[in-house]
Amino acid sequence: MRTLILLRHAKAAQAPGVPDKDRALTDRGERDAKRAGEELRMLGLEPEVVLCSPARRTRRTAELAFPGVEVRYEPAIYQAYPEELLERLRLLDPDHGTVALCGHNPAVHELALMLAEDDYLFRPGTFAVIKTAVPWPELSAGEGELVTSWGPQHD
């Protein structure tokens, strides 16, 4: 079995004049990213590698959620379509058992639905854990099972 953790970046600030790629996490986003990592560790999940968009908000989310884990910043993840993310996952080392992908909506949520259809919200800081029995190179739509999802709750 292989495990895929799909993590949407945490809450980011909207600042006039700041390019989208340079948007920083808010204080709440910083807390939520740390909490997402804590939730994953309580589930016994730690990825061997994290594939991450190079945008500032995704980089920081990955740093906070997965301290000490190898993070690969990949420009193609930044504005990818879900099919492109799936193609990237197919290139993973078949020996990796648990992998995380930290990216942006709508692609991350659409990829989760493509792999393991379910009905849940994918707000900033949300993750989905999907298990699959197929090797990464054979991963395709419907080949996963949603094990759990989690998202920060705010009033």
Give the gist of this structure:
Helix 1 crosses helix 2 (56-65) and helix 3 crosses helix 4 (107-115). By secondary structure, this protein is of the alpha/beta class.
Summarize the structure in words.
The protein has helices at residues 27-42, 56-65, 82-89, 107-115, and strands at residues 2-8, 49-52, 70-73, 98-103, 127-132, 144-150. The chain has a single domain (9-43, 55-88, 105-137, 146-155), classed as 3-Layer(aba) Sandwich (Rossmann fold), CATH 3.40.50. It has 155 residues and is of the alpha/beta class. α3 packs across α4 (107-115). This is SixA phosphatase family protein.
**Would you identify the regions where 5 or more consecutive residues have pLDDT less than 50?**
none
Beta strand % = 15-25%
Tell me the span between the first and last alpha carbons: 37 Å
Radius of gyration equals 14 Å
In total, how many domains does the architecture comprise?
Answer: 1
Helix/strand class: alpha/beta
User: What is the mean predicted local confidence, pLDDT?
Assistant: 95
Q: Class in CATH?
A: Alpha Beta
Q: Determine the fraction of residues in helical runs and give it as a percent range.
A: 25-40%
How many DSSP helices? 4
CATH-wise, what's the superfamily?
Answer: Phosphoglycerate mutase-like
What's the count of strands? 6
Shape: globular
Biggest pleated sheet = 6 strands, mixed
Strand/helix succession: EHEHEHEHEE
Please state how the strands of the largest beta sheet are arranged side by side: 3-2-4-1-5-6
Which fold name fills CATH's third level, the topology? Rossmann fold
- The CATH architecture is 3-Layer(aba) Sandwich
